[in-house]
Predict the structure.
Amino acid sequence: MKNYISKIFSLALLGIVFLSSCQEKKLKALIVTGQNNHNWEVSHDLLSKILVNSETFTCEIATSPAKGEDMSGFNPTFDDFDVVVLDYNGDDWSAQTQKDFESFVKNGGGVVVYHASSNSFPNWEAFNQMAGLGGWNGRNEKSGPYVYWKNDEAFRDDSPGKGGTHGPQHEFMVIHRQPEHPILKGMPEKWMHSKDELYSKLRGPAENMTVLATAYADPKKKGTGRHEPMLMTIKYGKGRIFHTAMGHVGKERPIAAQSAGFILTLQRGAEWAATGLVTQELPEDLPNKAVPLILHNYKSYSLDELFQRAKKFEYGKSHKYVNLISNRIRMASGDAEKLSLYETKIIETLASDASVDAKNYLCRDLSWIGSANALPVLEELKANEATKEMASFAIERINQSK
Ligand code: ZN
């Protein structure tokens, strides 16, 4: 009997261990940073937040010696990770470190090349093959062709000239060219990116490279007049590389990296680089082609946060938060449980100290999804001159749909 009980007990324990290891099995990412002509002290941290927020990765940081210092001891154990994210534009790595990195990728390791990382290592042949395209640091026609989107394909232009340029930072639209690729599938095919450098005239070997998305570099913004590659995938040996040219981080607020489209493609691109698949579900708030969607904390707003911010809404100012609420309600169409949750949140807000404009705006959403539960608060708002009209409208709609 004692034996029997201990057997059951150990089986149960095994079950718990198995279950928790399933739940905790995350992909391992290593961010390499420490030298950059950008603000790497800020960027490596936000890249880590973005990856961890996807709930797909754990993240470690490898910080190189400072510029000009001895690099011989800098040799992260790449093989311990599923994906290496390069936030690095600086001194050459030692021959041994380069060799180790090459064999990591050749054997199937994943890499993310982020923004100015493609500027680094102009003379390291394998790195340039992995990045596909790069710029600055003496890159020219010897580095490979310019690549841009022309006549519905990634066009290779061998004309001579320097690699890498950008005009002043501005908001621009990103256009997906491979919308069925796992990284992009399900996302809007066009979305506005927040203020960023629009990397242009990148050039490199561009072998085994697929251009996933481009942005038009408008001559009015000192651009090339070309559709420049923004997102790319590259195969190197058995390894996969995801390259994003976006996400500039300087001394000012890192708004380019707070763009929902940048965040989402980075999270999905890193997973694809690590495994060849994307299992992450799309978030409720997707980027859109009207205005850049900014996520201050590098993740979608919780419902509470969204309503807290929407409470301060004023007509004539940003519609962002109320729009996000309306969008979520639209997306939840047919999902009774979710709609009932939104109804409860709106009722709470209508009964709170929210602005008159917020209350009037939310009455319209409530008119679509409201039930008898919404009527008491609407009757109260109807008694108030400032909210009378919208409350009456909502009451009428709700009574009609009964
Ligand atoms: Zn930059």
Observations:
- The two ends are 63 Å apart (CA to CA).
- Confidence is low (pLDDT under 50) at residues 16-23.
- DSSP finds eleven helices and eleven strands in the chain.
